[in-house]
Fold Pirin domain protein.
Amino acid sequence: MKTVIHKANTRGHANHGWLNSYHSFSFANYQNTERMNFGALRVLNDDTVSEGRGFGTHPHQNMEIISIPLKGDLQHQDNMGNATIIKQGDIQVMSAGTGIMHSEYNKNKDRAVEFLQIWIIPNKTNVKPRYDQISLKELEKPNSLYQILSPNANDAGVWIYQDAWFNLGTFTEDTTTSYALNKKDNGVYAFVLEGNVSIEGEQLSKRDGIGLWETDNIAINASKNSKVLLIEVPMVF
């Protein structure tokens, strides 16, 4: 097994006043040749957007873009005709394909919105752009990992054009679990959303990340109430 650890305080950081963003991988003005990606995982941004502010209309192409609100409400609009609110407990996915235009704003006038913006490099390019959004509430399983994204349209959660799987887990103190990878040559990037966990013996705190590959199973132990996102992706793509 091989590992790479990204402590929360080593991430790139950009504070634009209305946007406070932490970058696990190179993005915009943060460029680190040793942190360009983890396999097909290209971007993992931890964004906080001020009240009523947001990202104006801008383009994307040939990228799988996933948004996971952690607090508050995110207002989305695009040139495919979608105008919706993404809330805490939802997941949104866009296959940018041949090209999309969209905007994202904090719907709330009285509080910030926090969300994860994740980009996955696709295994198919120039596809017809597509959009999907679901609530995760019916998928939640206490003290267990539950799938929220996969390559398969008929599986639990949303789907993308890549052999990738996302799982969330919310654990109480002293909970132990494991995760079996879906494909032999994939790796897993674990991102701690809350609490303290040990993954394969490495102690991790809030917003720490660890990448693991050349393994088929990983062990997770929560030493306090914790929440973890697992992102399984191809290491060669």
Summary: The chain has no helices and 22 strands. Residues 12-135 form a domain with the Jelly Rolls fold (CATH 2.60.120.10).
